[in-house]
Fold Probable tRNA sulfurtransferase.
Amino acid sequence: MTMQHCVLVKLGEAFLKGENRALFTRALRRNIIAALPAESGSVAIQPRGGMFVLFPSDHSAQLAQRMTEVPGINVVDPAKCTQKAPEAFLDAALDQLRERFGDELQQRPRAFAVIAQRRDKRFEHTSADLNRYLGAEIQRATGWPVNLSHPEVTIRVDVNFGDAFVSVQRLRGVGGLPVGSSGRAMVLLSGGFDSPVAAMRMMKRGLACDFVHFSGAPYTDPSSIYKAYALVRQLSRYQPRSRLWVAQLGSAQRTLASSSAPGLRTVAQRRLMLRIAEELAGRQKADALVTGDSLGQVASQTISNLHTVDDAVTRPVLRPLIGWDKEEIIAEARRIGTAEISMLPDQDCCTMLAPPRPATYSDAATLQTVETRAGIEELVTGTVSNLQEYSFTAGDGAQLSPQGAAALSSQRQSSQRCEGTASPQAG
Ligand code: ATP
Ligand code: MG
């Protein structure tokens, strides 16, 4: 009897998209291909009403695990594809229970339930018949008790038209929409907790994200760049391709700071960051900007200041965390694997020239005057003409472009020089 390992990948909202379903499933298929782990060998991908079935040439647990990180996928069932016969379903279920629980299968009983489903209604056994037959046989083979209301293990049988699928495990995917199905955005990525989480929220709504990080160089060490790099590398698990630009903002910040009242410096800096991000967004054909702002978190994030900041650009500034508490943001950062990186110490460009008491109220006209005095156009073009670019793919080991690798290693050397002449704050 032939039985084949496969992975059932069930679509989330993409499946509900009516007319546009083809667009969403195409994007998802592309992203699935980009995320395939090398361990699976070559993988055949078959669409079947509301799901994709993945048949790898080499079986490994990595494939299912990896699919849980692809936005647009709600549910992932590692499964076996079998012939359409009750005995084949039983063999497939027992095989997988042995694979999953090994010696524990007999030692520790687990309450279980069988859920059979017939897509092919002409199949001669009803779902209820299958549930009864499989329930009794699995109980006999394992000694496990049946519990339909609170099973610890659920065994699913999906009787399709050509063949059937049997699974004993279900993994939760990140859900949402396939990356790329909503367009492209430029994320302002600091080294903190907020912006990586904001990026993930927008990727899950279908935006392909590029990233820009501002370092305070030449007045800060490169620690914030390492963090931004590590953060994008982690986030690149969730989309096929990610790019990070690093801008050195230190000199422009100084010029801007000397042209503005101390209280307005932070807002002036944010406007400068957004202008540069928008310039990059134009080059990348990105239609939106994304920040990790959360209302009232710091002085620069009052409604008045957010309004003033938005005035600097024409593209929409998306702030998915605007109504989130810090605690909620950190919990989400833990789930998506960015918290441990965000937690590391760094020299942040924003704290470099931060005034003791930033204004909580500002208006666009005043900031425009400050910017004219500082020569904002030159500050933007000067910064944009000197960017470093790094490129990452969704594969397990993110790839560094040769140009990026050279730049990062030269920054490492200059950071060692920095340590040699440690300033009092450098720690
Ligand atoms: P935290 O997570 O500690 O709040 P943060 O970087 O979010 O750190 P904020 O001062 O709250 O700090 O910044 C608000 C938003 O502005 C950030 O979420 C980010 O989108 C953007 N931002 C701030 N600093 C930078 C930076 N150095 N490079 C790129 N974007 C930045
Ligand atoms: Mg913040």
